[in-house]
Each structure stands twice: as structure tokens, then as C-alpha cells.
Write a structure and sequence with these properties.
The protein has two domains: 142 residues, NAD(P)-binding Rossmann-like Domain (Rossmann fold, 3-Layer(aba) Sandwich); 226 residues, 2-Layer Sandwich (Dihydrodipicolinate Reductase, domain 2), CATH 3.30.360. It is built from eleven helices and 17 strands. Strands 14-13-12-11-7-10-9-8-17 form a nine-stranded mixed sheet, covered by helices on one side. It has a six-stranded parallel sheet with strand order 3-2-1-4-5-6, sandwiched between helices. Strands 15-16 form a two-stranded antiparallel sheet. The protein is globular. The structure holds nicotinamide-adenine-dinucleotide (NAD). The site of nicotinamide-adenine-dinucleotide has 24 residues, from α1. The site of nicotinamide-adenine-dinucleotide (NAD) has 24 residues, from α1.
């Protein structure tokens, strides 16, 4: 059994890794930033000089095989997945893999077989499952679905003569993503790196969240897309639950990116941009809970927190961005999307004192739903899950 702190190697030290995993691993008492591996000298220099990586390397094979490396964080683009995972399995090293798990279903299934035949702890970077706000919203909603605490003020107009409905209480889940595609980097449009575009690499985050909240098995999927930027998807589950996903790449960073709304058993649980949870219809649960921001440059503005606080901070930051002619200044306070918690909870899983964070089977299911949506949009019909 591994002891803390665990020596991590990060393979692929690009934008996401240097923005999240590398500083998080360097900062956490549970982990050591043992090795950073990338092809770029510039990235490696930053890893060593700014983030304090103990070692740097351009060779991912040697990095995985290094006996001092105890766990891997794979954050290359999805072009490189299976060979690294296969070697990690061979050397018995736990591995955290960025989403999407694979660029094809064949590769996803190959990874699933390989990981399930091994004993290595395995985690996919569907980080939102680790966001404090999402965890709280999920806990409250699943509580209401499993043991409903329905408010006494519910209007039961027909009482005993109310007809029985098979979908009485059954959950639905809506997920709205507001994005601005002008911010996307070039590899997103490169078919060799991201053959299915955001319909796969963004979508698996959200299909995973739908599956997690609804706790049911996806049955069929229907999707429409307008090319690359806008997508609308509906997923039906075996228990009758329905998830609706709306992703728009023609939105704006001036407004919160993500809104999740879960309904069922006469209740509503909303997670707004992972900084505020609102509830209604559930006995003894607060109607509004706010969560701390990360990298808050304006702690004295929007002190009420939550969405209202975020909007005030954002308005000031957008002015600053304009004044300084620096687009990066528009990012004022970020919601905690769970990246750091994901690595820390994965360490607990590795040590055997925490549950599975986001294992291969759940990740493959989220990936299959995304592929069913891709197929549905292409063929203009409902796709059953057994087709993918
Ligand atoms: N979970 C999240 O919130 C989130 C957010 C953004 C991106 N991602 C995912 O993270 C992954 C990386 O995205 P990014 O935006 O950081 O991309 P990026 O292009 O900025 O970084 C990828 C890095 O991998 C390196 N690389 C490529 N081949 C390599 C090899 N053979 N050996 C070592 N390094 C190699 C590149 O040099 C580059 O530095 C993608 O799969 C993306 O979908 C996840």
C-alpha cells in the first residue's frame, strides 16, 4: 500500500496541466510533483522553474517505468491514451487520465478491458464530480430521490382521486453550457487530435454528470447539432428519467458557463456555475447555499457570494480587461470545478481509504452516450445504447 505523499508524474504539461494538475499536485500535502513529461522545452522549463517539478523528461515510457514514480496523471490531448495506460498497467501504477477517455469507442473498450483485468486504481478527469457544489447538489438530490422529504405545502388538488402515473416522481435533469468558441485553441479543429470536436471532448463531462445525478442506465439518445458550435441532446434512461443537454459555443464569458437543474419527487435542486446551489420543495434543506471561489481577485466586491457575487466581480473584471487591453483579466473569480479535490480523492482511493472517484466503467458509459449523440446527430434518428 502506498504511503502519502505519493510521487506523481504528469505526462502532457499543456494548458490544462499547467493551469490545474501541476500546481495542484505541487501544492497538496498528499502528492509530490516528481516528474513532468512533455515534448516542449518551454513547458518543461515552466514546470521546473515555476512549479518546482523535481525532474523533467521528454520520454513518457521512461517516466512510467521510473521506479520512483508511484502514480501518473495523463494530460496529453486524447491522441495519446491507450499506450500510456497499457504501460501503467504493466508497471502497476495508478493512473488519472484526462477526458475524453479515448477518441474511438474501440479504444475506450480496449482501455476498459485492460484496466478491469488489472488491479490498478484508475480515474478519469470528469472533475465536476469533485466540485464541492456539485457534491452537495448531488447529495441533496439523491437524498430526495431515495427518501423524499416532500413539503407539506405541496398542492395535491385531487388527493385520493388523483390518477396513478408510472412517471410519478421520476427525475429529469437539464444541463446548460454557455461557451464562447473564439476562446478555443487550434487543436480542437484538428481532426487528428479531436476527430469528433466538442461533441466528444466537452460532452463527456456533461453526459457523466447526467448519469451520476440520475443514477440510472442510459437507454436511448437523440441529438441535433449545427456543425460544431451548438448541440442539443436528449438522453432517456431505463427508469424513465430524461436528461436534456444544451451546449452553445456562441455564448459569452460575461455570464456563468454551467447550469444544472435536477427535478424529481416534487423538488428542484439547481447547481449554478458550481458557486451556488438552490433548492425548493425539500423539507429542512436550505434554499440557497454558496461556495467559495478560487483565485478571487476581488474579495471586496460581490461579497454576497454565489451567482450575484460572481456577476458583480465579473462586471468589474471585464472593465479591467478592456482598460488594460488584456483578455485574461476578465477572469475574476472561478468556481471550484473540483480539479484539486479529484487528485486528492484519487490519492485516498489509491491508499484504499476512499471510494472510486470516477472509474473506467462510468467513464466508458459517459463516452458511449457521447458517441450515441454523435451517431444520432449524423444519422438524424434516435440511437439506442446497444448500438454503440
Ligand atoms: N478536465 C478539464 O477541465 C479539462 C479542461 C481542458 C482540457 N482537458 C483535456 O485535457 C487534455 C489536454 O488539454 P490541453 O488543453 O492541456 O491541451 P494542450 O495541447 O495545451 O496540452 C497537451 C500537451 O501534451 C503534450 N504532448 C503531446 N504529445 C506528447 C507526448 N508524446 N509526450 C509528452 N507530452 C506530449 C503537448 O506538448 C502539450 O504540452 C485534453 O484531452 C483535453 O480534453 C480537460
Amino acid at each position: 500500500m502506498l504511503q502519502e505523499p505519493v510521487n506523481f508524474a504528469v505526462i502532457g504539461c499543456g494548458a490544462l496541466a499547467r493551469g490545474m494538475h501541476i500546481p495542484n499536485i505541487a501544492k497538496s500535502p498528499k502528492t509530490v510533483l516528481h516528474t513532468c513529461c512533455d515534448l516542449s522545452d518551454e513547458a518543461l522549463k515552466e514546470c521546473r522553474d515555476v512549479h518546482g517539478a523535481l525532474n523533467i523528461s521528454k520520454d513518457w515510457r521512461a517516466t512510467v517505468m521510473n521506479p520512483e514514480v508511484q502514480a501518473i496523471c495523463l494530460a496529453t490531448t486524447e491522441k495519446l491514451r491507450f499506450p500510456v495506460i497499457e504501460l501503467a498497467v504493466e508497471y502497476d501504477k495508478p493512473i488519472y487520465v484526462e477526458k475524453p477517455l479515448a477518441t474511438t469507442l474501440e479504444e475506450a473498450y480496449k482501455i476498459q478491458r485492460t484496466v478491469n483485468a488489472s488491479k490498478i486504481p484508475f480515474c478519469v478527469g470528469h472533475n465536476r464530480r469533485n466540485s464541492p457544489a456539485m457534491i452537495e447538489a448531488h447529495r441533496i438530490f439523491r437524498g430526495q430521490m431515495d427518501k423524499p422529504q416532500i413539503c407539506d405545502w405541496r398542492w395535491d388538488r385531487e388527493g385520493a382521486t388523483r390518477p396513478k402515473r408510472k412517471d410519478d416522481g421520476v427525475a429529469t435533469f437539464c444541463c446548460r453550457i454557455n461557451d464562447d468558441w473564439y476562446s478555443w485553441k487550434n487543436w480542437v479543429f484538428d481532426k487528428t487530435q479531436a476527430p469528433h470536436g466538442p461533441m466528444l471532448f466537452e460532452m463527456t463531462h456533461f453526459t457523466d454528470i447526467c448519469n451520476w445525478f440520475l443514477a440510472s442506465e442510459p437507454k436511448e439518445v437523440v441529438a441535433i447539432e449545427t456543425g460544431m458550435l451548438n448541440h442539443a441532446i436528449i438522453v432517456k434512461y431505463t427508469g424513465g428519467e430524461i436528461a436534456t443537454l444544451s451546449l452553445c459555443g456562441n455564448g459569452t464569458f460575461g455570464y456563468p458557463k454551467e447550469l444544472y437543474e435536477a427535478m424529481g419527487n416534487a423538488s428542484m435542486v439547481v447547481c449554478d456555475h458550481m458557486c451556488e446551489v438552490r433548492t425548493a420543495g425539500i423539507k429542512n434543506v436550505p434554499s440557497r447555499i454558496t461556495f467559495p471561489f478560487l483565485k478571487d481577485r476581488h474579495p471586496n466586491i460581490g461579497t454576497q457570494g454565489g451567482i450575484a457575487g460572481w456577476l458583480e466581480k465579473k462586471a468589474v473584471a471585464c472593465h479591467e480587461s478592456l482598460d488594460a487591453n488584456d483578455p485574461m483579466l476578465q477572469f475574476a473569480a472561478e468556481p471550484d470545478k473540483g480539479h484539486a479535490h479529484a487528485i486528492n480523492r484519487f490519492v485516498d482511493e489509491i491508499k484504499g481509504c476512499g471510494g472510486v472517484v470516477c472509474g473506467v466503467d462510468d467513464a466508458v458509459m459517459a463516452t458511449r452516450v457521447a458517441f450515441a449523440a454523435i451517431k444520432s446527430a449524423k444519422e438524424g434518428r434516435i440511437v439506442r445504447m446497444e448500438e454503440v
